[in-house]
Design goal:
There is one protein chain. The protein has 341 residues and is α/β, with parallel strands linked by helices. It has one domain: Bacterial extracellular solute-binding protein, family 7 (D-Maltodextrin-Binding Protein, domain 2). The structure holds (2S)-2-hydroxy-2-methyl-3-oxobutanoic acid (X2X). (2S)-2-hydroxy-2-methyl-3-oxobutanoic acid (X2X) binds next to helix 4.
Amino acid sequence: MKRHFWIVLILIAAFSLGVAMPAAAQQYKPEFKNSLVVGPTGPWGEAAAKFAELLKERTQGRINVKNYFAGQLFAGKQTNEFTLLNQGVADFALGSTINWSPQVKELNLFAMPFMFPSYKALDAVQAGEPGKKLFKLIEDKGVIPLAWGENGFRQVTNSKRPVRSPADLDGLKIRVVGSPIFIDTFRALGANPMNMNWGEAQTAFQQGTVDGQENPVVSVITPYKLWTTQKHITLWNYAIDPVILGVSKLTWESLNPQDREIVRKTALEVMAWQKKGARAGLEGSTEAVENLKRNGMEVVTLSAKDLEAFRAKTRAVYDKWVAEVGVDLVKSAEKIVAATK
Ligand code: X2X
């Protein structure tokens, strides 16, 4: 009774003085889980470490993010990440748009074969109406997207032979993510796509049960030292893979407004840094590619004419996916791309 009396008195005093409860008194759960498909090495994983560190510092320890690398939270099934976020099993995810595309099918926009000719075009699409629309669609599905980041332009590697034309892909077993557009694209090119989670793919590369895979140079191929199993790489920029730092709506609603502001600002800052990191050595430099060569990879670069052959083979896939992604969304992105080429 006595204790209640004092608590009530203090509350009345605080409110009558117009004193808000100080932010520091806010009690959150002891750990906020952040999901990643990749490990801690490379710009993608490093951004997660930076995000956790800065948030802890800026909230005086109120928001304690623990990073679950290498798919620990989604138990190997990377296309489940969005669902975990939506359910609040994961509080945050620094996730690839490919992995979220089964739930948000409009995100397949970035995987449409040979759609994005440059970083400039991608940035313009993200900053423009299509980017806003995609963020809105994600939010409508229970996840607050905080900031764009990047895995990168995806390049194909394999252990068998240099790939200069679609015929070189003929029959090659290529590991792809379990997102149907990738199966469509590699089938159209005559390859034998195999849907596999990234964790299992590592074993498949070691054992040679697949011949190749497709991923960006700086964010994945380099930190995973894929040259130990894949000798050939073709730089064809056939798809771009943005990542998004998102937070579960359930988690977001548990935060006070000041802390939401800190989270949003920190996410934007860290992801701008992450995006730069994903492009370092690729944009305005060839360092990242030189590094692949130093590690024994044979690098194939394609002329505009060579690229046209791949584009022609995948045209029907593109056309099919316009309807899946949404005609209006694709058209508005195409318009921006054409204007920024
Ligand atoms: O699984 C992949 O290939 C990766 C790491 O790039 C994604 O998460 C989409």
